[in-house]
Amino acid sequence: MKRKTKAKLQKRLGIVFCSLVYMFLFLPISVIVVNSMNATTSKPYLSWKGFTLDWYVKLFDNSSLLSSFGNTMIIALVSTLLATIIGTLGAVGMYKYKFRGKSIIDGLLYIPVVIPEIVLGISLLTIFSKVSIPRGMLTLILAHVTFCVPFVIFNVRARLDGYDNSIEEASMDLGANRVTTFFEITLPVLAPGIAGGALLAFTLSIDDVIISYFVNGQTKTYPLKVMESIKSGVAPDVNALSTLILLATVILVVLTQSDLLKRREK
Amino acid sequence: MKSAHAKHEWKSNTLPAMVMVGPVTLCMILLVAIPLIYVGVMSFCSIDQYYNVVFKFTTQNHLRLFSTDYLKIYGQSLAIAFLTTLFCILIGYPFSYLIARTKSKRKKLLYMLVIIPFWTNSLIRIYGWRTFLGTNGWLNTALQFLHLTSEPIDFLFKQGTTVLGMVYCLIPFMILPLYTSIEKLDTNLLEASSDLGAKKISTFLEVVLPLTAGGIFSGSIMVFIPCLGYFFVSDILGGGNSDVIGNLIERQFQSGNNWPLGAALSIILILITLLLVKLYQKMGGDMESLGM
Fold it and tell me: Domain span at residue A179?
């Protein structure tokens, strides 16, 4: 009996602790959502002037905000696509073939993962300025591809660990060429790893602040726009856009993983 | 005959190997290796009176790294990173343990709820903390409403606030590897341990902790290192009172406009990273688990 109450108490303590951690994680989000409905129009937009949903309409008149969001989406989509192609080919190629310098490439892949982003950012900035590539959309995409490729490779590699080479041989024995075999046999097997890597790449790209900060030139991404606005106070329309983005991602996840709200996966 | 066959095989494999590995090789060499080497080279360069980088050899930048002002900030930055890592473990471990071992049907949802906040831009969330903690913020309003304080308390722009922001930004990088390593734990081992008469504490210390140490190590690497560079957190929450090494570098590439000095400062971060990764590998850490 005594033991039971103790176990119960422990369980309750656990629930309280986890709830506190979730509160910690979601607290700034609630600040963003509440501030997106603040009727204030004067900087730094901190005092509460009553409830309004106007900002959700007005944000569509803020062309610089919208274009920064557009830039972020373009950069994220293009660099995710490129990083996924480069990473998938690279992971499979490095798994199948031995070549000189392989271990060097392998070692280089870890650098973008572990090194502080600021170091990657300034190193790209210095090299872009050395070879006089004008900073803008192109340099942003190159930089994002650079830090996304390793994450795609590691995800695909995790799938390759249990990969059975003989199914490829069977395909080639049956007369399929390399290209057909790659698209019809290899890719479908690796698909979950590729998808996971691409999703991670996309997430990293849309939220990147530090590396973009150094290589952007005049092309503002959404995080850089936020950074700029922080100096004078983040306006409610920026909060409104953030709320919409969050809402969209949550809906997307609920739709794609509909079992999420039902029951635990077996 | 044999060598001809080998030659044929080599030839037939060269093209596909190049197509597959070529792009990633180019990407890593041109955009990672060469830029980093160039940073090393630049740290030995000088600047002219217009702040342009000139290729005139100097060790001046490296000598400046040892000025007392800078040494103080390295110490501060390491202390902030250490405290951040410690808090991430202290909060992240029990939390990951509880959600990884829950029997609740909503386990997957509980896991997703950790990730969802991180789909909102990190700057705006850090700014959310500033709004919450400011003198006119929610926290002070609540405290005054409850008559717990008559004057607003200044929570902002202290080292502790920066640590709070860092913990907030980086804790998922601790929780996710811990969750993975705890979920992999074999329940039979825990039962065996308690069947053999071990107390909960000793089961934890002698079975659970050693088996999940890998998660703690990789989480610590993924928290400690970025913490040294996250200049925007100390900018927004620290207000110049809690600079990290990243702030020093950022200043030299922006307002300070002394790129060679900034490059020399980056070398410090590169060295710390190398040192910690070597240590991590020595302790049996798996490099692959850093990428997730």
Answer: 66-238
